[in-house]
Amino acid sequence: MKNKRLLAGPYLFWSVSFVVIPLLVIVYYAFTTDEGGFTFANLAQITTPENLKALGISVLLSLISTLVCLVMAYPLAMILSQKQVSQTSFIVLIFILPMWMNFLLRTMAWQTLLEKNGVINSILFHLPALEIINTPYAIVLGMVYNFLPFMVLPIYNVLIKIDSNVLNAARDLGANPVQTFVKVTFPLSIPGVISGITMVFVPALTTFVISDLLGGGKLLLIGNVIEQSFKQNSNWHVGSGLSLVLMVFIIASMALVAKYDKGEGGTAF
């Protein structure tokens, strides 16, 4: 037993050093002034018109990106779950291969593809130019591209664990493919869907690199506001306060996961 506790030592050290301590620092700055006095003013900065607008746009684009990812990921996950093991492993490997590349480089690649004189417009020849760069559409595209694997993999992991006998029983009882999906497959895959939604929505809500590169800085998300508070304005108090407000969304997402993602193999219900 003591040896097992010793093995957990490095993990405990890592968690305390890079999770607990930084979080405590954020909490300290969020509730203090420059003079060290206690205040709620930093958290109240989220109520300013500019920050509320940035938060609203962030939530909207994150919801759209999450919905697009779900619509694209679910059919793909179903197709992968019906393949043979060797085929599935290869296809999944190809699908997650871009994730081995740095996040920043992947986003910059899309910037090169979408710009007015970029690769996509250069191959359109005499067709109208695709003016999508520096727009909300480009930001959503960047979010979907970067976070789609985080939606596919949880759903796929749940679908492959659903017992095929359950689906066969539904068909034997007279259910057509649509009824089987609506009443059996989808309800059993809810834990994977909830996990995927959480894994996409949270990073999409807090991102600032995608909006900087693909939005051209014309559209401020709440992540950009927090970044500017820390880096440009050197106001750690306001930045920490806004960061703490965003944690409410993260905690809510974790609560959803704890509620729906309790079982394994899609049999949580």
Could you characterize what this model shows?
With 269 residues, this protein is mostly helical. It has helices spanning 2-7, 9-30, 41-44, 49-81, 85-96, 103-114, 119-122, 136-159, 164-172, 177-188, 190-206, 209-214, 222-231, 236-260. Residues 263-269 have low confidence and may be disordered. The longest helix has 33 residues, at 49-81. It has 14 helices and no strands. The radius of gyration is 22 Å and the shape is globular.
Q: What does the radius of gyration come to?
A: 22 Å
What is the element string, with H for helices and E for strands?
HHHHHHHHHHHHHH
The largest β sheet comes out as: none
Strand content: under 5%
Question: Layout of helices and strands, plus pairs?
Answer:
Blueprint: H1 2-7, H2 9-30, H3 41-44, H4 49-81, H5 85-96, H6 103-114, H7 119-122, H8 136-159, H9 164-172, H10 177-188, H11 190-206, H12 209-214, H13 222-231, H14 236-260
Q: Brief description of this entry?
A:
Helices cover 73% and strands 0% of the residues. With 269 residues, the chain is mainly alpha-helical.
Key features?
269 residues; mainly alpha; 14 helices; 73% helix; globular; disordered C terminus
